[in-house]
Amino acid sequence: MLLDNEMKNLLARVRTIAVLGAKDKPGQPVDMVGRYLIAAGFTVFPVHPKRNGVWGLPTFRTLADIPEPIDLVDVFRAPEHCADHARECAALAHAPLAFWMQSGITCPQAFEILKDTPTVVVQDACLMVEHRRLLG
Questions:
Q1: How many Cβ atoms from other residues are within 10 Å of residue 12's Cβ?
Q2: Rounded mean pLDDT of the chain?
Q3: What is the CA radius of gyration of the chain?
Q4: Cβ contacts of residue 41 below 8 Å, gap of 6+?
Q5: What pTM does this model have?
Q6: What confidence tier does 74 reach under pLDDT thresholds 50, 70, 90?
Q7: Residue 64's domain spans which residues?
Q8: Which of 23, 63, 111, 135 is least enclosed, having the fewest CB within 10 Å?
Q9: Residues ≥6 apart with Cβ < 8 Å to 11
Q10: What domain of life does the native source organism fall in (predicted)?
Q11: How many domains, the chain?
């Protein structure tokens, strides 16, 4: 886990966020976090293979479909899918600053896949909570 000052510096650099597993179903953690990120001024790219227009935004099927570089990949997927998403992240033309697995999500394979890239891996931490706490 990053130290607070490292996490604060990382989050201060983030402008664009891809939310993997995005859905705008009220009461779901992904909906609360996605809406928070939008309200906090981030450019948010919802990513979901079947949903369209999440949070009223264009929704992409994969990370590779997003037309601009992403600073942070926020993962709301079960741990068994995280390694594949880490590979997808590693294949992007512009490496994100962070691959962030939300509270309750851990995946040692994601660390292995991304360890030789510039992308920092964060696991089992809520992006909304940490952003509020460090940059609130």
A1: 10
A2: 96
A3: 13
A4: none
A5: 0.96
A6: very high
A7: 4-135
A8: 135
A9: 130, 131, 134, 135
A10: Bacteria
A11: 1
